[in-house]
Design a protein that fits this description.
There is one protein chain. The chain has 14 helices and no strands. By secondary structure, the protein is mostly helical. Helix 5 packs across helix 12 (about 270-275) and helix 7 crosses helix 8. The radius of gyration is 24 Å and the shape is flat. The protein starts with a helix and ends with a helix.
C-alpha cells in the first residue's frame, strides 16, 4: 500500500508540473500570434487610434507577465477568465461545446472498446492464419488513411452519392442525440484509427500472454480455453492497451477539431477554431487548461488501471 501511495504521489506531482508547462506554453504561443482581439474588433480597415483604445480597454497594453499573473490568480479561484470579443465567461463557452464533444466521445468509446478488443482477441486466436492476416491488413490500411480524407470519402459515398445519411450536422443544433443519423459518419471517422491501433495492441498482448508459462500451466490443469483466454490472458494483454485507450479518450475529448470542422459539429473543437480566428486568448487558454487537466487525469487513470491489471509494472514505475 505504501508503494502505491508513493507511486501515486509521484504521478500527481508529475501531472501538476505537466499542466503548468502546458499553460505556460499555450500563453507563449498565443502571444506569438500575429495581431490580437483588438485588431479583429477594429474591422477590416482599422484606425490605429481605435486599435489602441480597444487594446487599452481590454488591458492588452499591459506587459505579458502581468496579464499572465492576473490570469493565473483567477485560475486559483476557479475563474477561467472572460472572452475578449463577447464579454462572456470562458466557462460558458466550455459548457456550450462540451455536450456535443462528450456525446461523440461517449458513443465512440461504447463501440471502440468491444470492437477493438474483439478483433484483437480474434486475430490472436488465429495467429498466422487467414483471419489474422485479414484483420492485420485491414487495420493497417485503414490506420494509414488520415481522418479528414476518410471523412470526405464517407461523405461522398454515403451522403452525396447514396443519400443515406446527412453530410453535416447543420440544422440539428446542439441536440445531436435526437438526430442519430447525424452522428453515424462522425463516429465512423473517430473510430477508424483508434480501432486499428487498439486491436493491434490487444492482438500482440494476447499472443504474448497465451505463450506465457502461467497460461501453459493453466492448460496443464485442464482449464477451459475460454476461461484461460478471458480470465488469465486478457487482463495482461489489456495492460499496454490501457495506455493507448487513455490517449484515445484524451484525443476524443480534446482533439476532434478536424472531425467537428468537417461535419460542422458545435463542440469544443469548433470553439477552439473560432477563438483562434478571433485571437480570443482567454478562451484559448481556458481550453488549454481543461485539455491539459483532462490529459493528466486520463493518463493517471490509465497508469492505475495498468498497475491493477499487472501489479508488477508498479515496481518499474
Amino acid at each position: 500500500m505504501n508503494g502505491l501511495r508513493s507511486w501515486l504521489a509521484r504521478r500527481l506531482l508529475l501531472g501538476g508540473g505537466q499542466t503548468v508547462a502546458v499553460v505556460l506554453l499555450v500563453f507563449a504561443l498565443t502571444e506569438a500570434l500575429p495581431g490580437d482581439a483588438a485588431v479583429v474588433l477594429a474591422g477590416d480597415q482599422p484606425d490605429p487610434g481605435r486599435i489602441a483604445a480597444i487594446r487599452e480597454t481590454m488591458h492588452l497594453d499591459r506587459p505579458a507577465h502581468e496579464r499572465l499573473a492576473a490570469w493565473a490568480a483567477g485560475l486559483l479561484h476557479g475563474d477561467l477568465g472572460t472572452s475578449l470579443t463577447s464579454g462572456r465567461p470562458v466557462s460558458s463557452y466550455l459548457a456550450d461545446g462540451f455536450g456535443p464533444t462528450l456525446l461523440l466521445a461517449a458513443v465512440t468509446l461504447l463501440l471502440l472498446v468491444p470492437l477493438a478488443g474483439g478483433l484483437g482477441v480474434l486475430a490472436a486466436r488465429h495467429e498466422g492464419r487467414l483471419v489474422d492476416r485479414l484483420i492485420s491488413s485491414v487495420t493497417l490500411g485503414v490506420y494509414a488513411v488520415p481522418e479528414f480524407a476518410f471523412g470526405v470519402l464517407l461523405v461522398t459515398v454515403f451522403a452525396l452519392r447514396l443519400g443515406w445519411l446527412p453530410p453535416t450536422a447543420v440544422g440539428y443544433g446542439d441536440d445531436l442525440l435526437a438526430h442519430p443519423a447525424a452522428l453515424v459518419l462522425p463516429v465512423l471517422v473517430l473510430l477508424s484509427r483508434p480501432v486499428c491501433s487498439l486491436a493491434r495492441l490487444v492482438r500482440a498482448g494476447m499472443i504474448d500472454a497465451l505463450a506465457s508459462p502461467y497460461v501453459a500451466q493453466a492448460r496443464r490443469y485442464g482449464l477451459p480455453g475460454a476461461r484461460i483466454r478471458y480470465t488469465h490472458a486478457l487482463p495482461n494483454a489489456l495492460a499496454p492497451a490501457a495506455q493507448q485507450l487513455a490517449r484515445t479518450v484524451d484525443w476524443l475529448l480534446c482533439g476532434v477539431i478536424v472531425v467537428e470542422a468537417l461535419f460542422v459539429i458545435p463542440g469544443l473543437g469548433t470553439v477552439l477554431i473560432n477563438a483562434v480566428a478571433e485571437r480570443d486568448v482567454p478562451v484559448i487558454q481556458g481550453l488549454a487548461v481543461v485539455f491539459g487537466c483532462t490529459a493528466v487525469v486520463l493518463n493517471l487513470g490509465a497508469d492505475l488501471a495498468t498497475y491493477r491489471l499487472v501489479p508488477r509494472t508498479g515496481v518499474a514505475a
